[in-house]
Amino acid sequence: MSSVPVMGISAGQFGVAEPDVPDVVREALRLPGLDMVGFHIHAASNNLNAGTQAAYLGWCVDWSAQTARACGIDLRHVDIGGGIGVAFQGEKPFDVARFGELAARTEPPAGVKIVLEPGRFLVADCGWYAAEVIDVKASYGEWFVVLRGGINHFQLPTCWDIVHNIAVLPVAPWPENCPRPTAEDRRVAVVGELCPPLTTYCCAMSGSTAYAPETSSSSPMRAPTAGSSPYTASSATQSLSDISSEAGAAR
Ligand SMILES: Cc1ncc(COP(=O)(O)O)c(C=O)c1O
Fold this sequence. Notes:
10 strands; 2 domains; binds pyridoxal-5'-phosphate; alpha/beta; six-stranded mixed β-sheet; elongated; TIM Barrel; four-stranded parallel β-sheet
């Protein structure tokens, strides 16, 4: 049993470009032992609008029905991939009830199973990113909170320019024999510790600014809604063997 993965309408490394689908299907239909049941599409991302997500669902169903008809596939399966977004600062969360109402109006062709594969929406709240604050400093009037971490741990905010909420956990003892660097009641840019300017500027939660009532060196800082950006997806230094042993541990 097989379905053709289709990833969208712009250049990318995943799936099959839409104009190439008929040729790929034609080849696939020639292969012995393969029962072509439908299409697997993933062409939406971080969408907070229930109306457009429902419209996307409808589009996937219509496109699949038309393409199956044109290519001679007995359509039984349409997977629309993920795409439901996660709300960050000031954004309105995805309205699941509204999406349900609208999605129920989509009538798939008889005998066709529709599959939704939300990813981030399901797991983002399951994890936090926590890192130690190793320095708090001012430069030309702007304040920076430097983490023992960054895109090598947590890449998504950089890739998607997300303004993450953060929380600073106060730690009272300050063993050093010098004044403790602290930013109080001011905007701060939270940055990672890696060296290249782009990396530093864009490190986890940097590039964005955060407001913290008081941030001191050695305080731990935590960012919620980090459950869909695992270490595996971020570490610049991680080797394939680390990934396979992580996968083994997860199993
Ligand atoms: C094929 C496929 N389905 C589903 C998902 C989940 O997408 P999202 O996290 O946007 O819901 C992805 C994410 O990359 C994907 O590649």
